[in-house]
Every structure is written in C-alpha cells, then in structure tokens.
Amino acid sequence: MLAFSVPPGYRRSRPPTRPKLDPFTGIIDAILAADEARPKKQRHTAKRIFERVRDEHGYAGGITIVKDYVRAHRLRHREVFVPLRQEGAVSTSASCL
User: Could you tell me the pTM of the whole model?
Assistant: First the structure.
C-alpha cells in the first residue's frame, strides 16, 4: 500500500538563498524595528525601504524581493488578538433565573 493517499507535495529542505538581499536584511530589519515606534501613517512602505537601501547602502537587487521580505517580516511580527470566550459558561444574570 501507499504511505499517502495523496502525494504530499514538494517540501524545501532549506529556505531559498537570496544572494543579493541577504547582506541587507539586517538593515531592513533595523528600519522596520524603528518604524514600530512611529505612528502608522509615518512608517516606511516597502518601496521606500527599497529606495533607502538602494541609495544609502548600494543594494543592486530588485524591488520585488525587498517587497516579499518586508511582507513576510510584517506577517511574522503582526500583533495577534485571542478572543477570551468561555465555552459552556453559565450566565448568572438575574434575568435568567
């Protein structure tokens, strides 16, 4: 018999390398960390981060890989709220008695 009823699909053994972006990820992380203290309207966009890294630090890669990295970083560091709801809780209000 087969181990899987449906083939499991392709899985990477290690994350893909980004030879042009990897030397600049620390700079991008620092920009994003500094933005967390700023109001939402004053934070850097992915395009502005790309322009700063290109102009100030000599980045020679494309904008798409920077946008993908910024999107993934923001998803990883997003604030998450967990609803506090109790299942099967008994109401103690006077209208239920």
Answer: 0.71
Tally of domains in the chain: 1
Strand spans (E) along the chain: none
Is 39 domain-assigned?
A: yes
Residue 41 lies in a domain: yes
Does residue 28 belong to any structural domain of this protein? yes
Which CA distances in Å does 54 have to 33, 68, 75? 19, 16, 23
Distance CA 5, CA 25 (A): 40
CB 65 within 8 A of CB 18: yes
- Encode the chain (97 residues) as per-residue pLDDT tens digits: 567 777 778 888 888 888 999 999 999 999 999 999 999 999 999 999 999 999 999 999 999 999 999 999 999 988 888 888 777 656 555 555 5
Amino acid found at 66: V
Domain assignment present for 71: yes
